[in-house]
Amino acid sequence: MIEKLAMLPGDSILVMDGGSRRLSVLDPGGKYVRSFVIPYQVQDVIAIGPRLWVLSGTDYSEARIGYPLQSTDATGTTPKPFGRAFPVLESRPSASQRSIAGGPTGVWAVRPDRYELEHFDVNGKLLEVLDRQASWFPDRELEGSRRKWSDPIYPRIRDVHVDRMGRLWLMIGVAKDGWAPM
After folding, report:
1. Residue 179: which residues within 8 A CB-CB, separation 6 or more?
2. How many CA atoms lie within 13 A of 154 on its CB side?
3. Given phi > 0 = left and psi -120 to 50 = alpha, else beta, which region is 24?
4. For the whole model, what pTM was predicted?
5. Using 50, 70 and 90 to split pLDDT, how confident is the model at 39?
6. Percent of the chain residues past pLDDT 70, beyond the cut
């Protein structure tokens, strides 16, 4: 299943097929160029240069467990940890997931269940952490969309984007006041 598209330098297209764990490159006309398999489930991918990609996913291998961000070159050689390690919480898979976006100063990453943005340089060094506090987006230590079916759905960050001016945009799902299940 196609889950993500990313533009590469030269107008090539990077296609992420999550079901088969495959990344494919298409030329500007849509013709197949190459593909390779990533050895774990990838949620997001960005190109931060002509030959460097950053992947966000869940990898439980001994070498990469706890590193939701990985970097690889355009040939798909073994991904290497990118950024910092995070604790792997057994019943909290979203604690190790990140949506990512590339910008002029590096890579931005955000967890779906926490209003906290991490900024890394292109080598994976943590530059800053923006931790936003909002009454409508409470910190939580509970996995899932809500405690009980009758509760409102918890806010969840769906995606992050950096525009040409370097501004960060977040897509956040928030339940409408008074929401109730049907």
Report:
1. 152, 153
2. 18
3. beta
4. 0.78
5. confident
6. 80
Number of C-beta neighbours around residue 52 at 10 A = 16
Q: CA 55, CA 21: separation in Å to the nearest integer?
A: 12
d(CA 174, CA 182): 17
Provide the 3-class DSSP secondary structure of residue 91.
coil
Residues 6+ apart with CB under 8 A from 123: none
| C-alpha–C-alpha distance, residues 83 and 67, integer Å | 7
Instruction: Give the span between the Cα atoms of 12 and 20, in whole angstroms.
Output: 21
**Strand pairing of 13-17 and 22-26?**
antiparallel
pLDDT, mean over the chain: 79
Sign of the Cα pseudo-torsion (76, 106, 70, 20, in order): negative
Are β-strands 80-81 and 52-58 bridged in parallel, bridged antiparallel, or unpaired? unpaired
Residues with Cβ < 8 Å from 182, sequence gap 6 or more? none
Q: How far is CA 151 from CA 62, 112, 155, in A?
A: 38, 19, 12
